[in-house]
Specification:
Number of helices of chain A: 6
Number of strands of chain A: 15
Helix content of chain B: 25-40%
Number of domains of chain B: 1
CATH superfamily of chain B: Aldolase class I
Radius of gyration of chain A: 19 Å
CATH superfamily of the largest domain in chain A: Nucleotide-binding domain of ferredoxin-NADP reductase (FNR) module
Strand order of the largest sheet of chain B: 3-16-15-10-9-8-7-4
CATH topology of chain B: TIM Barrel
Helix content of chain A: 10-25%
Largest sheet of chain B: 8 strands, parallel
Order of helices and strands of chain A: EEHEEEHEEHEHEEHEHEEEE
CATH class of the largest domain in chain A: Alpha Beta
Order of helices and strands of chain B: EEEHEEEHEHEHEHEEEEEHEHEHHH
Mean pLDDT of chain B: 88
Strand content of chain B: 15-25%
Distance between the termini of chain A: 42 Å
Strand content of chain A: 25-35%
Oligomer: heterodimer
CATH architecture of the largest domain in chain A: 3-Layer(aba) Sandwich
Strand order of the largest sheet of chain A: 10-9-8-7-11-12-15
Mean pLDDT of chain A: 86
Number of strands of chain B: 16
Largest sheet of chain A: 7 strands, mixed
Distance between the termini of chain B: 37 Å
Low-confidence stretches of chain B: 322-343
CATH topology of the largest domain in chain A: Rossmann fold
Low-confidence stretches of chain A: 272-291
Chain lengths: 291, 343
């Protein structure tokens, strides 16, 4: 580990990890063990990567917020500490073949993963515009960098402390129309991704979203990070965010059903063709209403 | 000096005692990115069901001190897709594969066994009797010796004679020895223990249960003493039956502990989520430990803690004494030790 710094409400860690830096593509994530070698915390914490640099053979920078004992431990790490990191993991952002207009939408520290993507897009001749938002100014990540990289950057905060008052989804239709966007990329909280996807569907343009789900392993064995996604064949499956994702085509993710097993999902209790009643007497096994 | 790490699961020889635990290695492909699956004793699959299963809603996982609660709900592709895609992939690479099966009725277990009978590449079948996730109109086979034995005997009757049937036991029972004995009487060639005990955690922020399914299986080092106790008791009562010890193994020392309690094979589960390379590390550490203690063969250490050290007196009274009439298992020192322990 090289440096650690505070960025507004977030922590940023730079790690010397040549093997990861070499193979990392925008949208990939890494899974970090927390608590040291004799830790009582067994699950890895997964983070998207903000930055990759060639210094010291290759460094990667992670951005995160302290949410519990694991991330709190991580925030206390100092230069020269070693970390146990597995990566790069997941399916990265697919890139367009042609130079097209791309709008990159970030909610909270979800914007961290967008700068590597913006770089890759610009190298292909794409136009990049940013829409970045959060609840308040100190939770908006990377506004300066977005201003430097993007043709335009629109900032939103719910309390109006920076940029426009509101959410990214309030300003997104205007941005898409103004820049004649061909594709939208988004990373952030599930609710933001749901809204962004709805806007993109309205404009009938493709949208790629990077989801954040609780994971224990990050490489596909624990089966805890599943969400309902519609496959090529039209069938909904509970797929793992870590290996089938974290990047999905937005319109294929059933955002309103996240946290449930939709009755028509492959292998859902009660058979797909059966009645819609969520009958499941086995104690909490039925679809959970999250609305 | 290298240690002979070979072990036997019933009559099937494994190159070493380290296997994955059921449900912790997904299809096997995920782990094969990290290491050659042929380097572990065997790969135990997730529990395969007849129909594809979507599993439980999320959140499915909650971290607890030195443990993990999970309620995945046996998400899996179903037996058809398993036989079409997953098993041939493993068989093609020559990976020793123990297929775990889970069902809601005795007939379903039987039907699964029938489908596996002619499938190439099945080293053994593990009968998941205890998964707390399985929705079976409130009935969990592992809680009742008779119900467990019925499942085991139906699977045993249908599987090829040369494929061992392993019964996976739950610690959530009043008398694990009684269930173990019933399973062996029902035809189980080996026993695996422990499955996850049922636990629960409440999120004090949201004021709700942490898991969508409310309760879940507890795994990780938090349950290791439970696993050691179960292996100890069953080995003492049924010394001729091979035991797969599973429960919170993170290191070679932990594996050694289960082996000393009576396990001849050790399953690694939750540790895989923490470290995809963990099986190889545990194997190396175990071999170093055995070597450092002067063992030439792993088999010599199986159940060794049951035998009092020579001249060591009887400081601890074993709560269940081995049956002197039972056939000795493995290469555990025989006659004289039994005399010594019969107080």
């Amino acid at each position: 580990m090289l440096t650690t710094r505070r960025v507004d409400a977030y922590h940023a860690l730079t790690l010397v990890a040549p093997g990861i830096a070499e193979h990392l593509r925008p949208g990939h994530f890494v899974a970090v063990a927390v608590g040291g070698p004799r830790s009582s915390m067994l699950t890895r914490r997964s983070f998207s990567v903000h930055d990759v640099k060639p210094d010291y053979g290759g460094t990667v920078e992670l951005v995160f917020t302290v949410r519990g004992p694991g991330t709190s431990w991580l925030a206390d790490r100092r230069a020269r500490d070693t970390l146990d990191v597995v990566g790069p993991l997941g399916r990265p952002f697919p890139l367009p073949r042609d130079p097209v207009n791309c709008v990159l939408v970030g909610g909270d520290y979800g914007s961290a993963t967008l700068f590597g993507l913006a770089d890759a897009l610009q190298r292909r001749g794409c136009r990049v515009d940013f829409v970045i938002g959060a609840e308040s100014a100190e939770r908006v990540f990377g506004a300066l960098r977005a201003r430097r990289m993007g043709e335009t950057t629109t900032l939103t905060t719910e309390d109006g402390s920076l940029g426009m008052r509101g959410r990214v989804t309030d300003v997104l239709p205007g941005v898409i129309a103004d820049v004649r966007a061909d594709v939208v990329y988004a990373c952030g909280p599930m609710e933001t991704l749901r809204g962004v996807t709805a806007v993109a569907i309205e404009f009938d343009i493709p949208v790629q979203v990077s989801v954040e789900e609780a994971m224990a392993c990050g490489f596909g064995v624990c089966m805890t990070c599943v969400l309902p996604v519609i496959g090529e064949d039209g069938i909904t499956r509970m797929v793992r965010a870590c290996v089938e994702g974290p990047v999905f085509r937005g319109e294929r993710v059933r955002f309103e059903d996240v946290g449930t097993i939709p009755f028509d999902a492959a292998g859902a209790p009660g058979a797909p063709s059966a009645s819609t009643s969520p009958a499941s007497p086995g104690g909490g096994g039925g679809p959970r209403n999250v609305s | 000096m290298s240690v002979d790490m070979r072990t036997y699961l019933a009559h099937v020889e494994l190159a070493n005692p380290i296997t994955t635990a059921a449900g912790c290695a997904s299809s096997g492909r995920e782990l094969s990115q990290f290491f050659d699956l042929n380097r572990i004793g065997a790969l135990v699959t997730r529990s395969i069901t007849m129909a594809p299963r979507a599993g439980r809603p999320t959140p499915r996982m909650a971290e607890t001190p030195s443990g993990l609660l999970n309620a995945v709900g046996l998400q899996g592709p179903g037996i058809d897709a398993f036989l079409d895609r997953e098993l041939p992939w493993l068989a093609h690479r020559g990976v020793r594969t123990v297929v775990s099966i889970g069902g809601g009725t005795v007939n379903e277990y039987g039907a699964l066994a029938r489908r596996l009978t002619d499938a190439p590449g099945v080293t053994a079948v593990e009968v998941n009797l205890a998964c707390p996730n399985i929705e079976d109109r409130g009935r969990v086979f592992a809680r009742d010796g008779a119900a467990a034995a019925e499942v085991v005997s139906s699977v045993r009757a249908l599987m090829r004679y040369d494929v061992p049937v392993i019964a996976k036991l739950s610690p959530d029972v009043a008398d694990i020895v009684a269930v173990a004995r019933a399973c062996v009487d029902g035809g189980a060639d080996a026993l695996s223990m422990i499955n996850t005990p049922v636990g629960m955690s409440i999120d004090t922020e949201t004021l709700r249960p942490a898991l969508a399914a409310v309760t879940g299986g507890l795994s990780g080092p938090a349950v290791r003493p439970l696993a050691v106790r179960c292996v100890w008791q069953v080995y003492a009562a049924l010394p001729g039956v091979p035991i797969v010890g599973v429960g919170g193994v993170l290191t070679g020392r932990d594996a050694f502990e289960l082996i000393l309690a009576g396990a001849c094979v050790v399953g690694v589960g939750t540790a895989l989520f923490h470290d995809p390379y963990v099986c190889l590390r545990i194997l190396r550490e175990l071999e170093e430990l055995l070597s450092a203690r002067g063992f030439q063969r792993l088999a010599d250490a199986v159940g060794l803690a049951h035998h009092h050290p020579p001249g060591g007196g009887t400081r601890h009274r074993p709560d269940v004494l081995p049956d002197p009439g039972a056939p000795g298992f493995g290469a555990a020192p025989g006659g004289s030790d039994l005399e010594e322990s019969s107080l």
